[in-house]
Amino acid sequence: MSAFAVRGTAETPGVPPGGPVKGLPWAVLRLHRAALLVWGAFLLAAVGMLVWEVEITADSVRDRMAACERTGGGLCRLQNLTDYSSTIGWASTLVYYSFFAVAAFTAGALIGRELENGTAQLAWTQSVSPTRWLAVTLAVPAALLTVGGTVFVFVFRWAWAANRDLMGDDWTFNDVFAARGPALVAYGLCGLGVGALAGVVLRRSLPALGVACGVMYLVNHNLEKYREDLWPAVTPAPTKGVEMSQDVWQIGDGTGRFHPRSHYWPMHLVETGIVLGVAVLATGAAFWVLRRRTA
Predict the structure, then answer these.
(1) 177: closest CA among 38, 61, 275?
(2) Of the chain's two ends, which shows fewer C-beta atoms within 10 Å, N or C?
(3) Is 249 in a helix, a strand, or coil?
(4) Is 60 exposed, middle or buried (0-12, 13-18, 19+ CB in 10 A)?
(5) What pTM was computed for the model?
(6) Percentage of the residues of the chain whose pLDDT score is greater than 70
């Protein structure tokens, strides 16, 4: 049954409070509340992990490192540094690659299953146009992805910079590169758009889920592979030479080209723009296909 048929008013059973159009966002929240609660709990756990590492674990790591220095244990010190930075990195990795889960959920449950089971068509008979249905169905998770992702980015940037003596210069790592800026949110919205298009085109949950995840893999894989080409690299003059430090990204093509840390934001914003462009195109295509099929 559709969420509209389950939740109604005493005067008009089957119609959500405020009418079918005004009640549509609440219907989406009610129908997919389990997935939304899981997403919220996941983000809270990731944010909590970062706060715990910065406020609690960092001091104990420094104490253990001091003990290592007294005993002359260089390997012991390195292990403690690795443990701390790895935990921070895991939080960024899990949230960054959650766009696969977003694409799978959108294609499989949010769009594909509703079309496959006919519940979307039932909603369209209750004064909700197909375009309106798709717009609100995507707007609710898009808002939650944007807000949740933005909060995580700010917390992660704080955690990544809070104890630099315990962290490596890892700004070029794929997950850290994305998690320090709006690209993290862009990937989530891209998963939403790609999942919507797959669901509308295929109208079956499992095939749509597989296609959406496959497309997101291709988008992400190619952007990570060619990320170094998103902004012109610096090539030092042969006669002057350049002192390479740990915080530059050396491009392994034998020409001495590299990206200094100052290139982070230009590269990051170009990638964000590309991902958002794919999201807009996929979402627009989903609306076009839906209008064509329901005209």
Answers:
(1) 275
(2) C
(3) strand
(4) exposed
(5) 0.84
(6) 83
Contacts of 223 (CB under 8 A, 6+ apart): 271, 274, 275
Rounded to whole angstroms, the Cα distance separating 222 from 194 reads 16
Which among 39-43, 141-145, 184-188, 254-258 has the top mean pLDDT? Answer: 184-188
Instruction: Return the structure tokens found at 190.
Output: 């891209």
Q: What sign does the CA torsion over 102, 108, 111, 113 have?
A: negative
Residue 213's identity, in one-letter code, is C
HSE at residue 239, side-chain half, CA atoms within 13 A, is 0
CB-based contact 104:193 (threshold 8 Å)? no
How do the domains of the chain map onto residue ranges?
15-237+245-294
**Token pair recorded at residue 166:** 């315990």
Place of tokens 């983000």: 43
Place of tokens 């309106």: 132
Stronger pLDDT, 93 or 247, i.e. the higher one? 93
The pLDDT value given to residue 184: 96
Cβ neighbours for 25, distance < 8 A, ≥ 6 positions apart: 136, 139, 140
Question: At 153, which amino acid appears?
Answer: V
Split at pLDDT 50, 70, 90, the class of 67 is confident
Question: Hey, which residues does 259 pair with through a beta bridge?
Answer: 249
Residue, of 180 and 126, whose pLDDT is higher: 180
CB neighbourhood size of 164 (10 A)? 9
C-alpha triplet 83, 84, 89: angle, nearest 5°: 95
Q: What are phi and psi of 259, to 5 degrees?
A: -115, 120
How many Å apart are CA 97 and CA 84, to the nearest integer?
A: 21
pLDDT-derived band at 18 (thresholds 50, 70, 90) equals very low
